[in-house]
Design a protein that fits this description.
- Helices cover 19% and strands 23% of the residues.
- The chain is flat.
- The chain starts with 8 loop residues before the first strand and ends with a helix.
- A 4-stranded antiparallel β-sheet has the order 1-2-3-4.
- By secondary structure, the protein is α+β, with helices and mostly antiparallel strands.
- Pfam families: DUF397.
- This is DUF397 domain-containing protein.
- InterPro entries: DUF397 (IPR007278).
- It comes from Plantactinospora solaniradicis.
Length: 62
């Protein structure tokens, strides 16, 4: 998985008080990365862009 050039952004649901935070890098063409903002050098979940869009759409519709 190639994440060179990934621009990470924190979830808009993050409260800024050290709670559970997720960061997403969705600026790449081949992959969307998801990681724990408290462990930026830790593991990254990788999704195909189409699968990520489907996930986000399903979450928004709940």
């Amino acid at each position: 998985m190639e994440l060179t050039g990934a621009v990470w952004r924190k979830s808009s649901r993050s409260n800024g008080h050290g709670g559970d935070c997720v960061e997403v890098a969705d600026n790449l063409t081949e992959v969307v990365g998801v990681r724990d903002s408290k462990d930026p050098t830790g593991p990254v979940l990788a999704f195909e862009p189409g699968a990520w869009r489907s996930f986000v759409r399903a979450v928004k519709n709940r």
